[in-house]
Design a protein that fits this description.
Layout lengths: L6 H6 L20 H9 L3 H5 L2 H14 L5 E2 L15 E4 L3 E4 L6 H5 L11 H14 L5 E6 L1 H10 L7 H9 L1 H25 L3 E5 L8 H19 L6 E4 L16 E3 L6 H7 L5 E6 L8 H13 L7 E5 L9 H15 L2
Parallel strand pairs: 1-4, 4-5, 5-6, 6-7, 7-8, 8-9
Antiparallel strand pairs: 2-3
Helix pairs in contact: 2-4, 4-6, 7-9, 8-9, 9-10, 12-13
């Protein structure tokens, strides 16, 4: 049981709540005009992440507009690469880029042998600022990428759609891949502990590309490492949300210590909840595209999503994937108000 007063935490722990909590993946982001202004002021995305005052400001922007039930730290899953001295930059229209990807043993051997988590101190500062501003009014979600998902970027060197290099490595040099995954896991454990020490109230593991793997590979190259992170941080008593886009291997998530699973929009909440024997909370899973429709359609789909979950608690309303830049902020206001109104009945 939690002693939390926050709706989000209570619902994750299946405690009594009077309505379904809601937050939105990427809620601080490119669909908000004020975000774009702040990003430009910071000189771009990386400048924004590395500026604790401005990163705090954009974290709070959606909370000023909407009655959301949580803040989520404004950062990126790839900042962990700072610990490996891999220089991350973002290119417009292309996303994250690493100029020296990890493709060979010698690439790996050039990395630092000791990981220095203080290279991420700007994230600690951001969390400190957010916690101060929130002053206990709402919980703050911290996050990391799963080692597998982070590895896809470190090996590919950018945001690819083909994943050729990492899939070749998995088949031809799994020993090197395991070393890379071990390193990311160690770095992630240090990093999560730092976030927890700074006061995040929950943390989320984004395993965006977990769905690329076959059932057996999914355990060996993704979940095995996620499980290590969970077991190293579980004693801190913070709920852990795990999200994998287009995942079909839910069965494997049952016993690794996750408190809440994010579900993308092609899955039925009730079916997955029953598969987890109603023991693991669910987050999701309205299709983002629905927010481009008429309000009447949005309302119908909200009703459908809420009705598909068979319990009064244990559900955190969210989209099935991150919100996209082409969504009108007014539609988000409508979504949140409707979820609050309908679920409180």
């Amino acid at each position: 049981m939690s002693s939390s007063k926050h709706l989000l935490i209570k619902s994750i722990y299946h405690e009594k709540i009077d309505r379904t909590p809601i937050w939105i993946m990427r809620q601080a982001g490119r669909y908000l005009p004020e975000y774009i202004q702040t990003k430009n002021k910071a000189g771009g995305f990386m400048g924004l992440i590395r500026n604790p005052e401005l990163a705090c400001e954009v974290t709070l922007q959606p909370l000023k507009r909407y009655s959301l039930d949580s803040a989520i730290l404004f950062s990126d899953i790839l900042v962990v690469a700072d610990m490996f001295n891999m220089n991350l930059r973002f290119e417009e229209k292309k996303g994250p880029v690493f100029d020296k990807p990890l493709r060979s043993e010698s690439d790996f051997n050039n990395l630092p042998s000791e990981l220095d988590v203080s290279k991420l101190s700007y994230v600690n500062e951001t969390i400190k600022n957010i916690k101060q501003e929130l002053n206990g009014s709402l919980p703050l979600i911290g996050f990391i990428g799963s080692p597998w998902t982070v590895a896809t970027y470190l090996v590919e060197g950018n945001s690819t759609k083909k994943f050729t290099h990492i899939m070749n490595m998995l088949c031809q040099n799994s020993n090197l891949l395991n070393k890379i995954l071990d390193m990311i896991t160690t770095g992630s454990i240090h990093y999560v502990k730092e976030q927890i020490n700074q006061g995040v109230d929950a943390f989320m593991i984004f395993d965006t590309w977990g769905g690329l793997l076959s059932k057996e590979d999914y355990y060996n190259y993704s979940l095995k490492y996620v499980e290590k992170i969970i077991s190293s941080t579980k004693s801190h008593g913070k709920p852990i949300i795990y999200y994998s886009r287009s995942n079909s291997n839910f069965e494997s998530l049952k016993n690794i210590g996750i408190d809440c699973v994010g579900i993308s929009s092609e899955n039925n909440l009730g079916n997955i909840y029953n598969l987890f024997d109603k023991k693991i909370a669910l987050q999701g899973n309205l299709n983002t595209e629905i927010l481009k429709q008429d309000n009447s359609v949005i309302k119908k789909e909200i009703n459908k999503t809420l009705a598909s979950f068979p319990n009064d608690t244990g559900h955190v309303f969210n989209l099935g994937s991150g919100i996209t830049p082409d969504i009108n902020p007014d539609k988000v206001a409508f979504l949140i108000d409707q979820v609050n109104e309908i679920s409180s009945k």
